[in-house]
Design a protein that fits this description.
Elements lengths: L9 H21 L8 H15 L2 H28 L17 H6 L2 H16 L5 H19 L22 H28 L1
Helix pairs in contact: 1-2, 2-3, 2-5, 3-5, 3-6, 3-7, 6-7
């Protein structure tokens, strides 16, 4: 079913919204609130209003924000699944038998989220304002993550690359560096690629 004048089918909006409601309900019980500050979780949640509003800007922001990290997540996950060898630390928790299988299964949203976001951008068009908008969002989220989350969880790697806090530089200096790295090394390349492909 698709309403006249809409670009996103209603069934997609309803199915995705229901799925996100399930994830939020489970994650709210199993994880700390800071878990929702992961950029992938922000994209997961943000895709709901992006779908319903059919917002090109919001869809574009979410896409440049997580497309590259999600591709790396998938390479790590499927690489280890197929070879049995650890590719990166991004997906270690997916192979942790101490975590319930259903909880790990819910994290498979990382597989279809980048596909959904790319499809939305193709349908709605790429909004070039996404780069400054996503950068501004990151500059809000990263300090909040630093102040509000447990360093042991290392959400968005605000305490160090990988699984734990880094020791090579002052923590706030590292945070500032990270606030430069995200826009320059993650957002900008994706922005340029989408701009080239879709304009």
């Amino acid at each position: 079913m698709e309403l006249s004048g809409t670009l996103i089918p209603l069934w997609v909006k309803l199915a995705y919204t229901l799925f996100v409601c399930v994830i939020v309900a489970v994650y709210a019980v199993k994880y700390s609130p800071g878990n929702f500050l992961w950029f992938s979780d922000i994209a997961l949640l943000g895709a709901v209003p992006a779908l319903w509003l059919e917002s090109s800007l919001l869809a574009s922001m979410l896409t440049i924000g997580v497309l590259l990290p999600e591709v790396l997540w998938n390479l790590g996950y499927f690489g280890q699944l197929l070879t049995g060898k650890r590719i990166s630390g991004l997906t270690d928790y997916m192979f942790d038998r101490g975590r319930p299988l259903y909880l790990r299964a819910l994290s498979l949203f990382h597989v279809f989220l980048p596909v959904l976001l790319l499809w939305m951008v193709i349908r709605l068009g790429y909004d070039t304002r996404a780069l400054p908008a996503q950068t501004l969002l990151a500059w809000i989220v990263l300090p909040l993550t630093y102040w509000l989350t447990d360093p042991k969880l290392n959400v968005n790697w605000v305490f160090g690359p990988g699984s734990g806090p880094q020791q090579r530089m002052a923590p706030l200096l590292y945070l500032v560096l990270l606030m430069v790295i995200f826009p320059v090394l993650i957002y900008l390349p994706t922005h340029l690629l989408l701009q080239w492909l879709l304009h």
